[in-house]
Amino acid sequence: MAQLPESQHTTSAAIIRWYESKPQEHRPHMGASLIGHNCDRYIWLTWRWALKPEFKGRILRLFSTGQREESRLVEELRGIGATVWDVDPDSGDQWRVSACDGHFGGSLDGVAKGLPEAPKSPAVLEFKTHSNKSFNELVKKTVKGAKAQHYDQMTVYMGLMEIDRALYMAVNKDTDDVYCEWVHFDKERFAQLIERAQRLISSTTAPFRMSTDPEFFECKWCSMWKHCHGGQAAEANCRTCVRATPVANAAWQCGIYNRELALHEQRSGCGDHLLIPDLVPYADAQDGSENWIAYKHKETGDMFVNGFEGNNDYGPVFSSRELHQTNGSLIGDIIKLKLEFPVSKVAAGSTTAAHQDTSTMWDDLATHPDDLPVKADAPEQRKEAKKIKSAVKALEAFK
Questions:
Q1: Residue 179's beta-bridge partner residues?
Q2: pLDDT tens digits, residue range 24-77?
Q3: Nearest-CA neighbor of 346 among 395, 311, 309, 293?
Q4: Are strands 303-307 and 317-318 parallel, antiparallel or unpaired?
Q5: Separation between Cα atoms, residue 219 and residue 46, nearest integer Å
Q6: Which of 71, 175, 268, 287 matches a 20 to 30 Å C-alpha distance to 351?
């Protein structure tokens, strides 16, 4: 008799892990699908690549389900006699539109003509899948009332394609019902959306948070919660650096090396990286120069420096990658460790100077927490030891 699998859920779990194993990268442009979002700060942080997407495997599979539904809807529209262009006939690629020097735009699901309600007029096509609850709300309130972000997405597409109508097609994933709605172009709303995109693309500072309450429902489920409310500094890539600027033709200019940056370079950044001060959420910038920015922790008052060289009067130096890996609540403990075990005046990761061997330092740090005399009846000491261990664990990420 063949041996049974370890668990009846092993296969389904493996499928989810397969989705999660695929790289989740930042989108190069500010998407039309995002411009109608309620929070300016979320759009800007996404545009600036503050945190990489971390969708669970089930959600990624859900995205795939929506994408697969598109080809079915195209087939069905053609089946009822409509002409559908699911790709740009001039290029053979998916329809793309852009604005704001190429930094803003998106991809259309298609363009159709010969639809029953308007046989002579071309229309932008937008396909979406919905849960039963979402679908029923859509039918009741229409797309503008129930899914304003989808409405704004279509408005951008219509404006940039110079087509005055769109057909919104929604599929109920529970019942397979299809809802169709005609949306007509709103010139005023289109102008507002383009202005919003340009304003956020040009901004060098982060917009205000939608709420200062970490339990606020729109913040609680936001992928930027870790940054806005959880005390995590942004990633170290070119988009989060103070010296990178969006320029014409969807390009980014490096202020350090005075040249345009390829997309793969933008994703990796360099050792000369300096975080935009607003992207260090737990501290306020106090001073700086071309190569460093000094910060004061908002709660503890501790001073530290982000950069690849700094003024010792402001405390130890942290590379941008170190700040990203270290939660703001641990900075004070790591500052103490850096002062006790100095590595170099140059932060880890710099491309401008050689680094000394840090193996001895890390060996010392690895044993330091275990050497603390913690008694069973000393809760405060146990708490302090736990904090130190957490700080060491964060530091070991840079070993």
A1: 170
A2: 778 899 999 999 999 999 999 999 999 987 767 777 777 777 778 899 999 999
A3: 309
A4: parallel
A5: 14
A6: 287
| Model confidence pTM above 0.90 | no
Q: How far apart are CA 296 and CA 242, in angstroms?
A: 18
Q: What confidence tier does 2 reach under pLDDT thresholds 50, 70, 90? A: low
Q: Which two tokens stand for residue 184?
A: 């007509």
**Residue 20: which of 63, 49, 68 has the closest Cα?**
63
Tracing tokens 């930094």 back to the chain, one arrives at: 103
User: Among 239, 250, 201, 199, which residue's Cα sits nearest to residue 96?
Assistant: 250
Residue with tokens 């680094």: 355
Q: Which 3-state string (H, E, C) describes the chain?
A: CCCCCCCCCHHHHHHHHHHHHCCCCCCCCEECCCCCCCCHHHHHHHHCCCCCCCCCHHHHHHHHHHHHHHHHHHHHHHHCCCEEECCCCCCCCCCEEEECCCCEEEECCEEEECECCECCCCEEEEEEEECHHHHHHHHHHHHHHHCHHHHHHHHHHHHHHCCCEEEEEEEECCCCCEEEEEEECCHHHHHHHHHHHHHHHHCCCCCCCCCCCCCCHHHHCCCCHHHHCCCCCCCCCHHHECCEEEECCCEEEECCCCEECCHHHHHHCCCCCCECHHHCCCEEEEEECCCEEEEEECCCCCEEEEECCCCHHHCCEECHHHHHHCCHHHHHHHHHHHHHCCCCCCCCCCCCCCCCCCHHHHHHHHHCHHHCCCCCCCHHHHHHHHHHHHHHHHHHHHC
Cα first-last separation, the chain: 50
Residue whose entry in the numeric block shows the structure tokens 């390829």: 262
The torsion defined by the Cα of 218, 220, 221 and 224, in degrees rounded to 10, comes to: 90
Order of strands, sheet of 123-130, starting from the edge strand that comes earlier in the sequence: 83-85, 110-113, 123-130, 165-172, 178-184
- Look at residues 269, 371, 350, 261 and name the one whose alpha carbon lies nearest to residue 305: 350
Mean pLDDT computed over 370-386 = 42
CB 388 within 8 A of CB 396: no
Q: Which residues contact 394 (CB under 8 A, 6 or more apart)?
A: 325, 326, 327, 330, 334
Are 281 and 231 within 8 A, CB to CB? yes
The answer to whether residues 330 and 394 touch, using CB atoms and an 8 Å cutoff, is yes
Tens digit of pLDDT for each residue in 358-367?
A: 222 222 333 2
Q: CA 321, CA 233: separation in Å to the nearest integer? A: 9
In the block, which residue shows the tokens 């951008």? 156
